Amino acid sequence: MSEPAARVAHRARVHGRVQGVFFRASAREQAQRLGLVGWVRNLPDGTVEAYYEGAPAAVREMDRWLRQGPPLARVTAVDIEEREPEGMYDSFRIRH
C-alpha cells in the first residue's frame, strides 16, 4: 500500500489594491485549477486573506500567483506563513 501524497498548507495576507478587482473569484479559480482546497476572504483593513492546502508544488504555484493576482489588482506585498494542513476542506471557497 502506498503512502498518501504529502500535503502542505499556507496562509497568506495580500496587500495593495486587492478588493473590488475580482481577486477572490480569481483566487478560487486558480486554486481549483491547481487542485487546492481552502478559502479566501476580504478583511476589513482592505487586505485579502487566503488559506490553501494541497500538493507542495501546487501550493508554491499559488504563492506565485498571489504575488501578482488578477489583471486589475495591484499587489504591493504578500505575507505567507506555513501552516499544518487542517485536512477539513473538500473544496476552495470564498468566505464572506
Percent in helix: 10-25%
Principal-axis shape equals globular
* CATH architecture tag: 2-Layer Sandwich
The largest pleated sheet is described as: 5 strands, mixed
The string of secondary-structure elements, in order, is: EHEEHEE
Number of helices: 2
Annotated CATH topology = Alpha-Beta Plaits
Could you give the distance between the termini? 41 Å
Give average pLDDT, whole number: 95
Low-confidence stretches: none
Number of strands: 5
**Which percent band covers the strand fraction?**
35-45%
Number of domains: 1
Radius of gyration: 13 Å
Describe the strand arrangement of the main beta sheet, using strand numbers: 4-1-3-2-5
Q: Given this structure, which CATH class is correct?
A: Alpha Beta
SSE class: alpha+beta
Describe what this molecule looks like in 3D.
It is built from two helices and five strands. The protein has 96 residues and is α+β, with helices and mostly antiparallel strands. It has one domain (8-86): Alpha-Beta Plaits. Strands 4-1-3-2-5 form a five-stranded mixed beta sheet.
List its traits.
Alpha-Beta Plaits; 96 residues; single chain; globular; 5 strands; 5-stranded mixed sheet; alpha+beta
